[in-house]
Design goal:
Layout (H helix, E strand, L loop, with lengths): L17 H11 L4 H11 L3 E4 L4 H16 L8 E4 L6 H14 L3 E4 L7 H8 L3 H4 L1 H19 L4 E3 L16 E3 L5 E3 L7 H10 L48 H21 L1
Helix pairs in contact: 2-3, 3-8, 7-9
């Protein structure tokens, strides 16, 4: 494949065949995360960063800030934050701190037609994550993300996923496309936790106060605990065969599961 592929202006996920993705990944895995991000900024269309302000996402945010400063521009890649309404207060405080520190545009998306936890629970019941996990994941993560991508015309997103986080992430490439054609860039795919933490400390990057209490991977407060072992995500969804919230699963399968669950709940309500 010609080297010109590396510098082509990608218009959408449709431009990335299996062969092209393989070629790009073979090249990108030899670059540093900063170099990967520089390539993405120059070549990927309508690029955003989706983040819950985890440590990996913070590294990417700081690197993008450095690239922006070196190019004498405002923060180049805007942020999308999915407010599930169940985040720790420390996470919300960090989101606010980061927007001020980096002067970065932050697009916040919440579950459809609700603004508070009380409104969400009035509509869907309490502890939906326990009674219908798929519906919960769809409502607080999958649907808001899809809505954000459509409203903002997002074609490419930067994630903080890494192979060392194991589970469904163990073999992720640096660049990929999902079932909707969205391009996903994982610039820290080959970094481990220690490399991430070393960068955070060396560059004085703001981070979640819960990290100092032993937390490593931080999601919703009802499903996040300090890790019990070496696996940094072992504190998420303890006791369940689950490693992802749904955001990085097949969108169409998640939507189908939600629709089926919704119909079942409606039928049960009729017969009750």
């Amino acid at each position: 494949m010609p080297s010109s592929v590396l510098n082509m202006k990608i218009q959408s996920g449709a431009d990335l065949s299996t062969e092209t993705l393989e070629y790009l990944n073979n090249h990108l895995k030899e670059l540093s995360p900063r170099e990967i991000l520089e390539w993405a900024i120059d070549n990927l269309p309508n690029l955003y960063q989706t983040t819950a302000f985890g440590l990996s996402g913070l590294v990417a945010l700081d690197l993008i800030n450095k690239i922006s400063v070196d190019r004498n521009k405002n923060h180049i890649v805007p942020l999308i934050f999915l407010d599930t309404l169940y985040h720790f207060k420390e996470t919300l405080n960090l989101a606010n701190d980061c927007t001020k520190t980096y002067q970065v545009p932050l697009k916040v998306y919440k579950p459809m037609n609700v603004n508070t936890t009380a409104e969400f629970e009035a509509e869907y019941g309490q502890k939906l994550w326990a009674t219908d996990e798929d519906a919960y994941d769809y409502l607080v993560k999958v649907e808001p993300a899809r809505r954000a991508y459509e409203e903002l015309n997002v074609k490419s997103v930067i994630t903080g996923r890494r192979r060392s986080q194991k589970g469904d992430r163990e073999n992720i490439p640096i660049i990929e496309t999902d079932s909707t054609g969205l391009i996903k860039l994982n610039p820290l795919a080959y970094w481990d936790y220690q490399q991430v933490w070393t960068y955070i400390r060396a560059n004085e990057v703001p981070y979640n106060a819960l990290v100092d209490q032993g937390y490593r991977s931080i999601g919703d407060h009802h499903s996040t605990f300090a890790p019990s072992g070496k696996d940094e995500r072992s504190g998420r969804w303890v006791g369940k065969q689950k490693t992802e919230c749904g955001l990085h699963k097949d969108y169409f399968k998640m939507r189908a599961a939600f629709v089926a669950s919704k119909k079942k709940r409606e039928q049960n309500a009729i017969t009750a």
